[in-house]
Amino acid sequence: MDLPPAASFVAVVLATVLFLVTILRRCNHHHPKRKHNLPPGPRPWPVIGNLNLIGTLPHRSVHELSKRYGPLMSLRLGSFPVVVGSSVDAARFILKTHDLAFIDRPRMTSGRYTGCNYSDMLWAPYGAYWRQARKLWKTEILSPRQLRSHEHVRDEEVRAMLRDIYDQAAAPAVVLLDHLLMANLNAISRMVLGKKYVVDGGGEGPAAAAATPEEFKWMIDEFFFLSGALNVGDMISWLSWLDPQIKRIKRLGKRFDRFLERVLEEHEERRRREGDGFAAVDMVDLLLELADDPNLEVPIQRDGIKGFTLFDAKTYVD
């Protein structure tokens, strides 16, 4: 009797998994790996490790496991061994005492597609580029002087929000969250990008087609969700083509890239148009100037400008 297509597919996947597990076990038997003195933790399953114990809210799942196995425990997420510290002493040990040993981040799908190919502060590997970025962030991009220079933008957007709320005072209900969201997006857009690229109600001129509030909110919400989610394709690389979340990350990365390309092209056009009279008025202008600095230890490429811009905007959202 012929099996239905779905059953045939599952049978092939299971057979492949069993075959790989058998090969891996034989390889490990002939080439034993060095044994590490790992902290206590749940016994991992073949292939998936402890992924079966991680729910839709990974931080809560890890917290529940730490109650059983202690503040320093070991997990295996697919192919990767992980040590989890969940106490003040463990955090101090990892983040302060031995920070250089733990400072790197693994190369995950999010870093490639929403971190502009690992070029922002969040995903860049530790090294000269990362140290330079941190220095520029402290002294130039998010310096107290730079933040003070945009104080009037924040005041103007708060006043505009209050006027809008006042104008709707006669309405049956006012959704305060919507007004707060628009005020925040407008302030971020003006400080980082130079103008309101997030346009409500259609708008006019070249900014109108950049992004609607709904589109931009979707991108931000999608980013925060996918950044905090575990992707099976990252943990078990040969299953990445089956992971729907990785497809979502790639789609989000393309949306961010189109948006940022438009922003950079408009800023570069203004720099060419104004010539020697050009003066930086927002953080993208500042990043473009920094990228032209021949004295930088590590050059900032276009992906780096996009990554810094996106990281800057996400920092303000946080």
Automatic annotation (TrEMBL):
Segments crossing the lipid bilayer: 6-24
Gene Ontology molecular functions: metal ion binding; oxidoreductase activity
Domain of life: Eukaryota
GO biological process, one term: secondary metabolite biosynthetic process
Keyword Membrane: yes
Record Pfam families: p450
Protein name: Uncharacterized protein
Lineage per the UniProt record: Eukaryota, Viridiplantae, Streptophyta, Embryophyta, Tracheophyta
